[in-house]
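Data card: per-record layout.
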Amino acid sequence: MNRSVALTILLAGFLTTAQAHFMSNLFPRKDFAHATYGKSSAVHHILISGTKSDYKEAFVSRILDSLKADSIYISVIPLKDLKKTLVQNYQAIFLIDVCIAWAEENKVLDFVRKNKNYKGFVVYTTAGDPNGCGSKSFPAGIDAISSASDAAKVPELLKTILGMLHNKMSQ
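The structure for this 171-residue chain is written out next.
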């Protein structure tokens, strides 16, 4: 490989990482608060974590309503607590993220990459340009979906994400 091409690729990777960290700190977002639903003795356990917005809170509320009907233990935590989470305690982990300046939330990316062998991740990234973020940022094998925060798409997205979560629990 040409030395200048290799340097360009290395620099692009560094700038993308630096940009993501800069944007996360420049535009801090509020995380979901701690909450639990169901009985801890339930067969299936799901973790939900993410950044808040009106759209995301309404979306997660509908996810919770559907999962609570299935007698699943659900733990909701702030993103800042992901680093303390043991993935093996959950059959599925649903992370709801945001894409700003073509970069996902660092806490989500770092957590998924740190646990790249865990097969229970479902990541939903809201983005103005759904092609700018999403599955290409995550390790292979991660179920990741990206979409604008569009209320008209909610029924289809809910069906897709709930299907992914149920699939993870049945593995």
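Known properties of this structure: The CA atoms of residues 21 and 164 lie 29 Å apart. The first helix runs from residue 3 to 26.

See the next section for split statistics.
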